[in-house]
Specification:
By secondary structure, this protein is an alpha/beta fold. The longest helix has 16 residues, at about 120-135. It has a 6-stranded mixed β-sheet, with helices on both faces. A 4-stranded parallel β-sheet has the order 2-1-6-7, with helices on both faces. A 3-stranded antiparallel β-sheet has the order 4-3-5, covered by helices on one side. The protein has helices spanning about 45-50, 65-70, 90-105, 120-135, 140-150, 160-165, 170-180, 205-215, 235-245, 260-265; strands at about 5-10, 20-25, 25-30, 35, 55-60, 75-80, 110-115, 150-160, 185-190, 195-200, 225-230, 250-255, 270-275. The structure holds heptadecanoic acid.
């Protein structure tokens, strides 16, 4: 069976990086300009436009049509989306899946709600691929990957929560923390798929130490780690080093955030997806 992988653009992955893979882009709206989060997007151009824009900015999830084009003509589709608790993306994907199934009763679509975003979605896609490479049945892959997603987690460190607050994506408690200048917020994606603050850290060094502690507390034992950052490669490498001091052989990869995650994580922010 020819199986296609799909994800929305909050996974920060380019279509050319994986075989048989398509992305449904979210968009970032800055005044009159809409930045589609696809391979053509220049993230620094977008961040620059955001910085100099006085009015409101916002984001929009992919439409049903974006998902249908991502599905293409595949006989079977395995997908993953950003948390349904904070975005309509899962909803439009589910609508597209229904339409696709009605138009082609012989085809199958499975969309997993990551209850998370970014690098945790990356891990989920790698799991799909691993199962496909072993030639497993579609239904087996869905079940195994859903179970796998229960064991993966997401932590983050943000210098500013202002876009999350302005767009109503965090609780007032988290917003209070955001008010403190120069203080980083370390948090995680909670079980319900919302942002959960863990602590306010003075300085990046402390934030990185706290992130490793949080990983260990939640059961990290040297499994895979995927880090994505907005204009902050040094922090990503520093965290990688911390992890390697304890687990020299762990499989760690670092990449840049694309449009959607950059909009919400803002400059300096980074996300960590890992296995427990
Ligand atoms: O539908 C839309 O317009 C997109 C809304 C997305 C809102 C949340 C994006 C979060 C991006 C920021 C830090 C990680 C938070 C994780 C919480 C589950 C990344």
């Amino acid at each position: 069976m020819n199986i296609k992988l799909v994800a929305d653009s909050s996974a920060n992955l380019n279509e050319c990086e994986k075989r048989n893979f398509s992305v449904a882009p979210l968009s970032v709206v800055v005044g009159e300009r809409a930045f589609r989060d696809d391979a053509q997007l220049d993230v620094s151009d977008m961040l620059h436009a955001m910085k100099h824009h006085k009015g409101k900015t916002s984001t929009a999830c992919p439409g049903v049509q974006d998902w249908l084009s991502a599905f293409g003509e595949a006989e079977a589709v395995l997908g993953v989306t950003i948390t349904s608790a904070l975005s309509g993306t899962y909803n439009t994907a589910a609508m597209a899946a229904r339409e696709y199934g009605e138009a082609h009763p012989d085809r199958k679509v499975f969309i997993l709600d990551s209850l998370s975003t970014g690098p945790e979605m990356e891990l989920i896609l790698e799991k799909y691929q691993e199962c496909m490479d072993r030639g497993e049945e579609f239904e087996t892959i869905c079940k195994k990957t859903q179970r796998y997603a229960d064991r993966t987690q997401l932590l983050f460190s943000l210098e500013s929560l202002s876009n999350l607050v302005k767009n109503g994506r965090v609780s007032p408690a988290a917003a209070v923390a955001a008010g403190l200048l120069g203080i980083r917020l370390v948090g995680r994606a909670g079980k319900e798929g919302t942002l959960e603050p863990l602590c306010k850290c003075r300085g990046e060094k402390r934030a990185i130490r706290r992130l490793l502690e949080a990983m260990l507390e939640s059961g990290y034992q040297g499994g895979k780690v995927r880090i994505s950052h907005t204009d902050n490669e040094p922090a990503a490498h520093a965290l990688e080093e911390e992890i390697r001091q304890r687990f020299p052989d762990s499989d760690i990869a670092i990449r840049s955030n694309t449009g959607l995650c950059s909009y919400y994580a803002e400059r300096g922010g980074f996300l960590v997806g890992y296995e427990t």
